[in-house]
Amino acid sequence: MLLTLTTTHRPATDLGYLLVKHPDRVHRFDVPTGTAYVLYPEATDERCTAALLLDVDPQRLRAQHDAFALGQFVNDRPYAASSLLASALAKVFRSALRGASKDRPELVATPIPLTVRVPVLRGTTELATRLFEPLGWSVTAIPIPLEPALGGDSRYVDLELSGELTLTEALNHLYVLLPVLDDAKHYWVAPDEIDKLLRSGAGWLAGHPDKVLIARRYLVHKRALTTTALQLLEGEEAEEPPAEEDAELPVPRRQSLAGQRRDAVLATLAEVGASRVLDLGCGGGALLTALLKDRRYTEVVGTDVSARALEIAARKLRLDRMPERQRDRLKLWQSALTYRDDRLRGYDAAVLMEVIEHLDPPRLPALEASVFGHARPTAVIVTTPNVEYNVNYPGLTGLRHSDHRFEWTRAEFAAWAHAVAAAHGYSVSLRGVGEADEATGSPTQLALFTASPTEVPA
């Protein structure tokens, strides 16, 4: 992987002071995925270019998401700029990213003419322009053609950026946006990535027109992390950002698909007369908020396998400032839906809103046994995407969300629902949620399971 930084600032060799890398040397750094080099192909008073070259070692690259044994050797990672290059940039140019230079402190805050080139970068011309142009860059992103025998363009571009910015601004733009363009990261993304995003996005991300897209892709479409990052970016009192349900691709109408889903679930809970309700896989607590506003619900329990998601839900609900009478109605429990949990037994209703599609299909029988067999609420409400509807989303290929393990047709969902109902003594009714298309149905499908009175244990 290669990235070059060029300036015509006079004297141009001041670039070496800003990067804290002498132009007369080749600098070598060990990084977790290989070896990074910094060298200067040209270094004169008129023009200076620093090159960051990352030599990826396939045997050190742990391709955790590859589906076959040789995946770590047969992929584009050693060649196309990605989070691998961003991580190397952060290590090699640490002082420049922070805006520190003991030799040229006055130059750190001074915009200088810069040209950045990344000769192989996964992405499109349109997206590269959307991301970099609002930051003051002039963008040239030329699609790289496939071999003549194949014809057409590949999914990679040769990117060149030019503008007058501080070097710190330029490096922070690259650190955040290279993995955003690639839409992937080579390492596990944890909550500390929020701090990295906010630190590197200081001064520019909050005002970027595509900040939601940037946050989602940088945080690999993790709902809880993205929601927290956007809240922190806008301030604690900011309007709640879209939950992961919205991240799928909303139906183009005034009310979001997530809002329509919540309304449908609330209406169904009212229909069955529930007062003690489980929100299983509650995430950041969007449904919990609506349930607590309705006094008919005397006990509301939110569960999630992620402790971090529960922390976010507690903060969103302002649990520490909640009146005692209202707080007594709410419980937040860490629990995995594929394991039996005695605390979940005996409730009027359980909701699994956009949950099942996040499980690997072989794990569904465990969920069915723990929810329908062991916890056995009087009613269970399940919502999930209708994959047939996906053709109505322009530009969508594959599933609606990167963490979805499957999406079912209406027939597949109906077959699953009827099989679960028969196995566990429930009756089931199916309905659509959202504006229906004549050919493909509604964007979301909902199943209401009701336990037969003779099957409900005393």
TrEMBL record:
NCBIfam families the record matches: bacter_Hen1 (TIGR04074)
Coiled-coil regions listed: none
Organism the protein comes from: Paractinoplanes aksuensis
UniProt name for this protein: Small RNA 2'-O-methyltransferase
PANTHER family, A to Z: HEN1 (PTHR21404), SMALL RNA 2'-O-METHYLTRANSFERASE (PTHR21404:SF3)
Record-annotated Methyltransferase type domain positions: 278-377
Keywords: Magnesium, Metal-binding, Methyltransferase, RNA-binding, RNA-mediated gene silencing, S-adenosyl-L-methionine, Transferase
Record's keyword annotation contains S-adenosyl-L-methionine: yes
Hen1 N-terminal domain mapped to chain residues: 1-233
Enzyme Commission no: 2.1.1.386
